[in-house]
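Exercise 7.
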Amino acid sequence: MQTANVVAPPLVSTEQSPHTGRRQRAHGPAAGRLRQTRQRSTGPSPVTCSWLRCGLLYRGMRLNKFISETGVCSRREADEWIEAGRVTVNGARAGIGTVVNDGDTVALDGRVITAKDKPKPVYIALNKPVGVVCTTERSVEGNIVDFVDHPERVFPIGRLDKDSEGLILLTNDGDIVNEVLRVEHDHEKEYVVAVDRNVTPEFLAQMARGVRIDVGHTRPCKVRQEAARAFRIVLTQGLNRQIRKMCEVLGYNVVALQRVRIMHIELGHLKVGRWRNLSEAEVAGLKPKVESPRPSTRPPGGLAQGERRKPKPKSAAIPFGQPGGVGGPPLDRRRRGR
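Solution. The predicted structure, written as tokens, is:
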């Protein structure tokens, strides 16, 4: 992949004129003396980095993000396609972490995709019936893409078991997928579960504390009884078949499982097999939150509580050959103070 070469403007230094005794600005070779103390590096110069921060130089984009922003799939699915060798950049097979720049040619299964392919964002909520598989592979019978049959290319945000029903979100916005699925965000998902025998207080307490399953101990969660053989549970993680495995460990089998809420979006009265577009307010709640800067607590002319005063800058180094400096005579400290 080609990289952009940036030519920095000539550095400016100051030298004393032998004729006037004043300092004058020096360019070109004279400024090279300032660079004698700079360590040689193969990376970009500080000037180049400042240009990058100012946005004056095009910065590359990770390949999975580029693919997701065209609306083809999510970033996670893009990584799977890259690993499978289905994606090329400029005719060469791409790898995880590949960065694409303006002018690069990205192809999926031999078909070129570009940022111009990005369609209008779509956000829908589906009441998935039992039997529908949450996959974008069209070769899988009962896949969710064919079931929804949306005119735009959409993909599910997360998964819901084939044997489960209820709320699942679909979109063509890859950035929102990461926002919703990140475990550290502690987004809530609510389910109503029916089991094969009566629910006991001990069972509910154990579910709430967390249960050790094959992949580890589940997080504590909210649980309450809905009926003799039904309960409601709110999770902040989405392990594979998590609720079913938790119940099995405690001696229960799940008869029916329905997801009724994802974060602030509720299933409501949406009929099984039907979908609807999300409202603007619902979409806004899915997007990353931008934190506003906190107001300053610094009093006028003073330091904020707990703040330490910055150390004073060190004095300038003694020039070469001068008393006390490198290559010069020792400094006569006996004359100090006279």
